[in-house]
Amino acid sequence: MNVVITGASRGIGKAIAEQFARHGAALFLNARNEETLTGTVEDLRARFPEVRVEAFAADLSDKEGARRFGEWVNNSVDGVDVLVNNTGTFVPGSISSEPDGALEAMLTTNLYSAYHVTRTVLPKMIAARSGHIFTICSIASLQAYPNGGAYSISKFALLGFSKNLREELKPHNIKVTAVLPGAVYTDSWNGSGVPAERIMKPEDIATLIHAMTGLSYAATVEELVIRPQLGDL
């Protein structure tokens, strides 16, 4: 199985990579920071020496960077079995007061990255009439909340992207799943004062994504909403 993961150097993306590596999948990873990405690759290779782990550093918020990564994937594998669009960023604020450029930053990183990477690798998936595309959205894709601003707008749009992709790819036998997590304990929560046990673990999301790839040919989870046991923060 060939698994492509963006935003894979830490957090949810790295947890997904680890989960698939445990089951012997070949990994093709991306992150913007080459040093951090290299560290992740070295760690995975050391822990899973039998697994192929390759990486390509690129800023996917840049259209050409996203395309270059997609083309690298196409040149590296015969086919893509799983694509996980996980690249994302968060700038808190309200529409009326957030920094100028916040919307553009959120859209290019959270939405356009997934759009351009997916468009680049899709022809091979369509030709093979197989594959599964996961897009990491958010509960912010479903409900506006205080201080959400441009982030929530971008995540609403990302869910729309996944919904459209699902309809388009039904005839091509390609599965599409939007993953909508609540709070997950990643670096962004460091120093927040919120107890780690109050928030979900990246491994929770990774376990569910891997499980969905094991469903029968006839079954597709279109949207998966996951929240902390005690609810949203």
UniProtKB/TrEMBL annotation:
Q: Per the record's keyword annotation, is Phosphoprotein included, yes or no? A: no
Q: Which domain of life does this protein belong to? A: Bacteria
InterPro entries assigned to the protein according to its UniProt record, in alphabetical order: NAD(P)-bd_dom_sf, Sc_DH/Rdtase_CS, SDR_fam
User: Which CDD domains would you find in this protein's record?
Assistant: SDR_c (cd05233)
Q: Which SUPFAM superfamilies match?
A: NAD(P)-binding Rossmann-fold domains
Gene3D superfamilies associated with the record? NAD(P)-binding Rossmann-like Domain
The record's listing under Pfam families reads:
adh_short (PF00106)
> Which keywords belong to this entry?
Oxidoreductase
Q: Which PROSITE patterns match?
A: ADH_SHORT
Family per record: Belongs to the short-chain dehydrogenases/reductases (SDR) family.
Name of the protein described by the UniProt record: SDR family oxidoreductase
